[in-house]
Specification:
By secondary structure, the protein is an all-alpha fold. Helices cover 67% and strands 0% of the residues.
C-alpha cells in the first residue's frame, strides 16, 4: 500500500452512525498532540524518504515504529501491535528489515521527520520550538510507560 492509498483509506469519512468523541480535556490534549506525535507516520515527506529505500506505507509504518525495539522476533512486534494480524506483522517486519538496517531506518526517519516538521512550522521561532519540546520531553519522562511500548 503506497502513501496516497493509505491516506485515502485512513482519512475517508466515517460511515453513518459514528459519533464524535466527547471534547474532554484528555481528548483535547490528544487532538492537540496527534499531529506532532504521528508526523513521522502521516508526513508525505517522511514517507517519500522511506520510499527511496523501498518502503511502502505499511512497511515504513510498522518497521519505523517498531525499529527502536531492535532486532526482536516478529512475535514481539505482533504483541506490541496487538490489533494487527500476526502473520501480517511477520511479513511486514521481515520485509522492512531487509530494505534498510534498523539503525539506518531510524536515522532516515528521524531526519525526514525533523525536516518536515521544520517546514510545517515555517517561521516559528526556534527558541519557542525548543521550549515546547523540553516541556513535552519532561512530560514523557514523567509518564508511566508500562504497557505502552510505542
Amino acid at each position: 500500500m503506497d502513501y496516497a492509498a493509505a491516506v485515502a483509506v485512513f482519512f475517508a469519512p466515517a460511515s453513518g452512525g459514528v459519533s464524535e468523541p466527547a471534547a474532554t480535556p484528555a481528548r483535547r490534549l490528544r487532538d492537540a498532540l496527534e499531529p506532532v506525535a504521528m508526523h513521522a507516520v502521516w508526513s508525505a515527506d517522511v514517507n517519500a524518504a522511506l520510499a527511496e529505500h523501498g518502503h511502502d506505507f505499511l512497511t515504513g509504518y510498522l518497521t519505523g515504529r517498531a525499529a527502536p525495539l531492535g532486532e526482536v522476533p516478529s512475535s514481539v512486534v505482533a504483541a506490541v501491535f496487538a490489533v494487527f494480524e500476526p502473520n501480517l506483522v511477520d511479513a511486514l517486519w521481515t520485509q522492512g528489515r531487509t530494505l534498510l538496517p534498523l539503525p539506518e531506518l531510524i536515522t532516515v526517519r528521524d531526519a525526514a521527520t525533523a525536516a518536515s516538521l521544520r517546514a510545517t512550522l515555517g517561521g516559528t521561532d526556534e527558541a519557542e520550538i525548543v521550549a515546547v519540546a523540553e516541556i513535552l520531553e519532561r512530560a514523557v519522562a514523567g509518564a508511566d510507560g508500562t504497557g505502552r511500548v510505542l
